[in-house]
Amino acid sequence: MDISASILSVKEEEAIHTFYRLELAHIDYFHIDVMDGKFVKNNTAEIMKIYSDNLKNITNIPLDVHLMVQDVKRYVDIFSSNEPKCITFHLEAAKGKQEVLDLINYIKQYSKVGISIKPNTNVEDVYEYLPLIHNVLVMTVEPGKGGQALIPETIEKIKTLKKYIEENNLDTEIEADGGIGLDNIKELKEAGIDIAVVGTTLINAKDYKYTVNKLREG
Ligand code: DX5
Ligand code: ZN
Question: Which residues in the chain show pLDDT less than 70?
Fold first, then answer.
């Protein structure tokens, strides 16, 4: 299972040092949480762009960009220059099927594409797009801030999604995001996730390498 480290809670004055420590801990991705102050009330776009620019000069570990924004194309244009490995937008930010398909194709010009669904969005709503996208980012907390507790009902959603992917011979990956730690990573792995986004648990840990290894074991 891959570990994607959310840098949302990284302290700006310690950012470079923290990024180096995360690289030494062999995380698989840096998870870039972009918030526009409209889709969610916080606005992190400016600092996440600074961090993304820094990271491209520091490390080869790929960027996993999570757009919690209304105007998806605007932020794809801003972050595409950082050559992310994947750009994920929220299904709830699109006004209908045609716009979802349009955004999938727009992102594919630059990177792999993911669709994220909030805790209250039905997992069935993403089924028709699965053959077209690289991963589904299942929010295990309400998007908008770090340090929240995982919502237990979202684990059932992951199991349902995994079953559908297997029954339909799809290779779409499942990424879970929010409130993930050593207390619930095993259950998430058994539910079928391929990538775990970990923020607070990792950033606040004393030993990054130990924590990443424990998380990866599940
Ligand atoms: C929340 C973000 C998550 C969050 C993860 O809106 O999408 O990536 O930062 O952080 P923790 O692990 O602290 O929930
Ligand atoms: Zn995220």
Answer: none
